[in-house]
Amino acid sequence: MIARIWLLSFVFIIVLAAIDGRKGTRQPRNEAALGFCSWLKDHQLKKCQAHPLRGLAARDGVELALKECRDQFSDRRWNCSGVTIADVFQRERMLKVDSKESSYLHAITAAGVAYQITKGCSLGNWEDCGCDTRQQGRGQKAGEPSWEWGGCSEHYKKGYDYSTDFMDPGKNAEKKSISNQIITHNNEAGRKAIKDNMDKSCKCHGVSGSCTVRVCWRTMPKMAKVASELRRKFENALKVKLNKNKTKLTRLSRGRRGRKRNTNNRRPSPSSLVYAVNSPDFCQADEKYGILGTLGRTCNKTSTGTDGCRMLCCGRGYNTVNRVNDVKCNCTFIWCCHVKCDWCKKEWVEHTCK
Ligand SMILES: *[C@@H]1O[C@H](CO)[C@@H](O)[C@H](O)[C@H]1NC(C)=O
Ligand SMILES: *[C@@H]1O[C@H](CO)[C@@H](O)[C@H](O)[C@H]1NC(C)=O
Ligand SMILES: *[C@@H]1O[C@H](CO)[C@@H](O)[C@H](O)[C@H]1NC(C)=O
Ligand SMILES: *[C@@H]1O[C@H](CO)[C@@H](O)[C@H](O)[C@H]1NC(C)=O
């Protein structure tokens, strides 16, 4: 009898704790989401208020995209550091000009939003989307043993559609302006970088490690991979203008090897990044565009590339600092189970731009 009462009260407490836990995590998250929505405008505001948690996921996608951007551009004068999440949603500062850097930002953030929304769907965060169940039965690819489709295939189309709706210039925006056409093109190129790099993950089932049944599901590429693909496209970005009718973008630049291209077909390919305005040199800080300048940047004295002191410091020269740090060294494994290390002094020379 006493045991039963104990059991009942135990269950009761767990139920209470669960209810409390839901309140605790759901409520503030929803409020945070509405708070985020409130500083959006126009069609983004409406979409965000209709689905605040999804808006918050879009914001997380932009945050992830900016982090990857900083990783990709750490070796350049423009290292993506001055760009904020607000700049992206409000198309402010760097994102206001149709430069190469801006084209990268639009592409990577549109991809980030598609990525994060798709992830949310796969995790079952929302009622109206989930895993992609279209692929079923057996699959086979040349040079690979066949497999069974199963698990949760990521429904990349859900994120793609959301990103298109949310990140592209709205229906009421002057759609035909060159800026809006460039943004739409680059956003699409970013989302395409996910689509074109969809992969599959597999798991083996069978007795003791044998692979009698292989089950696979579709996965999106990691954002780091998307970021580096887009970086390649950034290096080959195409300069464009509007055609005579002002309905389409056409390329200005010649083919890369100086060949004369077919003049009838000068549309940039959908996967390329496009821009219209040449970039500044990014040497000096310019708050108006979120440019931080290269003062104080660590540079590589021996490199002749963009991270070399010559390029990075814009000819202003560099300071040399001797740095010392305590690092773990001489680590030994002690049975069982710790690692014991000594502290050693590590010394190196660092160069920073004047
Ligand atoms: C401009 O648009 C009209 C109608 O859409 C079309 O007939 C014409 O060929 C276009 N001209 C050019 C130069 O693209
Ligand atoms: C980017 O540049 C800024 C300004 O020079 C600098 O403060 C920041 O540390 C740099 N970020 C990275 C990741 O190198
Ligand atoms: C500096 O550049 C040289 C030449 O490109 C390279 O070999 C070296 O690894 C770089 N050093 C650092 C710390 O990145
Ligand atoms: C590493 O450990 C060995 C043995 O304990 C010691 O003789 C040596 O000085 C240590 N080296 C450093 C750099 O601490």
TrEMBL record:
<dbReference type="GO" id="GO:0060070">
    <property type="term" value="P:canonical Wnt signaling pathway"/>
</dbReference>
<keyword id="KW-0449">Lipoprotein</keyword>
<keyword id="KW-0732">Signal</keyword>
<dbReference type="GO" id="GO:0030182">
    <property type="term" value="P:neuron differentiation"/>
</dbReference>
<comment type="similarity">
    <text>Belongs to the Wnt family.</text>
</comment>
<keyword id="KW-0964">Secreted</keyword>
<dbReference type="GO" id="GO:0005615">
    <property type="term" value="C:extracellular space"/>
</dbReference>
<keyword id="KW-0272">Extracellular matrix</keyword>
<feature type="signal peptide">
    <location>
        <begin position="1"/>
        <end position="17"/>
    </location>
</feature>
<dbReference type="Pfam" id="PF00110">
    <property type="entry name" value="wnt"/>
</dbReference>
<keyword id="KW-0217">Developmental protein</keyword>
<dbReference type="GO" id="GO:0005109">
    <property type="term" value="F:frizzled binding"/>
</dbReference>
<dbReference type="InterPro" id="IPR043158">
    <property type="entry name" value="Wnt_C"/>
</dbReference>
<dbReference type="InterPro" id="IPR005817">
    <property type="entry name" value="Wnt"/>
</dbReference>
<dbReference type="InterPro" id="IPR018161">
    <property type="entry name" value="Wnt_CS"/>
</dbReference>
<keyword id="KW-0879">Wnt signaling pathway</keyword>
<dbReference type="GO" id="GO:0045165">
    <property type="term" value="P:cell fate commitment"/>
</dbReference>
<protein>
    <recommendedName>
        <fullName>Protein Wnt</fullName>
    </recommendedName>
</protein>
<comment type="function">
    <text>Ligand for members of the frizzled family of seven transmembrane receptors.</text>
</comment>
<keyword id="KW-0325">Glycoprotein</keyword>
<dbReference type="GO" id="GO:0005125">
    <property type="term" value="F:cytokine activity"/>
</dbReference>
<keyword id="KW-1015">Disulfide bond</keyword>
